């Protein structure tokens, strides 16, 4: 039998006729039935009132804890869907839209169906829709065109994923919406990946207080974001879990607070430690066998987990504060740099960070925010190079209702007002359009934000951190950056050195490797690879080195000694001992009886590279 089309299936459903196999997913049919049971009318619907600006602001404050942590991931997702003409929506656990970012061409359409901040998109209010249905399911939902229960929403296609904290509590939902023919499976995967990353960061924040059991189908995945994670308190009670661990063990979130280590692993926490310690072991369960590793909240023998980290006195000495900061940053970064930046920021002096691309400016700013007097207030980041020039003014300063075509009906606060009371990070400020530099200077001087479209100016209390890879003095001389803004920001510019100037880069690599769990998995650097790391120029700086090490950890088994042979081909050819020249190559050939393949393997290069350096190819 030929499956029914969506249009015909919808007609039969509304007529109360039986449905043979059709193109409507079962999850959509169940949602339609829920909506019908609630008495929703597909053709007649009156939207509830929108939250006032003060009510919306209060709702955002209620969700500020997880929103602030999720903001970098949300911004990255927005950047990836903007060019496709979509909007990105963040809603709270009750389906109220907290924020919306999107392409101007689609914002007007979203406004016509009230897909805007302050509006309620629960399934029992809006019928079948990705936001409300994802919240009902507690997971993912994709709703395309005519799959929406209400006729007025058929012009949308949406994909959403609910966000849970490690204790299983529903926090909210991330949604991408667009025109029916322009939303693809790739967007669904992007949303799911973003939510996984946010949930990973939420788990990381609590992992230090719990004994963590990591699970994976194979040992190589235990140190990657793909592994399952369970957190147990000192009594062995399950207190935290990610969705990967729950799925692997066939559990749901009701297990949190009820299941114990012994129930899930067949032995007590103490017995596991006595048998396996923190090494990889096999965990047998109803679904098969998993690789597992236990990470303790404190060193072995100290099973008690402190409920709260010790409070840090603000009278901590400068040296102690600098040492703590150095622990949070990367080895090789001047320890006094963070303390200097903190003193400037706490004195309301703008912090200007200079450094090449990839030196870790964003990581530095996150550590600075965590160390300064405003660490409990918002940290709002704006990448001046990533936002299209036509949008950056409204993004930064906000706008009033009707300020331009596609503007939201209730306007937008803008990032400056979102950062009120906290810290605003202007990344790549050297790429800010010249037309906006004068407005920013005026805000820095007067502390008053004037949104687009007029209206009364609003006072803001923000501390400014700016960063750029450009030589701003040169940009000023070339007329591309205002001299007065440069001198307003650059009271005491701080330079983050490139990786090649941070001392022993192999030591930095070792610290990064340990930070990503390499030491716990018994993965170390060979002397040959350490030598390569020291002499390679690292044009991508810390980001390039960090990404390489993360990748290698995902690809190798526990206990691996990393050598140049583990490098990708693009780097492996550069790992050969250049200074040794032909003599080293000839010696390697001689040691292996002229076997070019064996000599190349010993040198950590490809055979074609060996021939090329010998002048044979």
Structural class: alpha/beta
| Low-confidence region ranges | 298-331, 402-409
Q: What portion of the residues fall into strands of 2 or more residues? A: 5-15%
Task: Give the overall silhouette.
Answer: globular
Percent helix: 40-55%
Distance between the termini: 63 Å
Number of helices: 26
| Largest pleated sheet | 5 strands, antiparallel
Mean model confidence by pLDDT:
80
Mind telling me the C-alpha Rg?
A: 28 Å
- Number of distinct beta strands: 19
Strand arrangement across the biggest beta sheet: 2-1-5-4-3
Plain-language structure description:
This protein has 617 residues and is of the alpha/beta class. The chain has 26 helices and 19 strands. Mean pLDDT is 80; it is low at 298-331 and 402-409. A five-stranded antiparallel β-sheet has the order 2-1-5-4-3, sandwiched between helices. A five-stranded antiparallel β-sheet has the order 8-7-6-10-9. The protein has a five-stranded parallel β-sheet with strand order 12-13-16-11-17. Helix 13 crosses helix 14 (361-371). Pfam families: AAA_lid_14 (PF25601), GAF (PF01590), HTH_8 (PF02954), Sigma54_activat (PF00158).
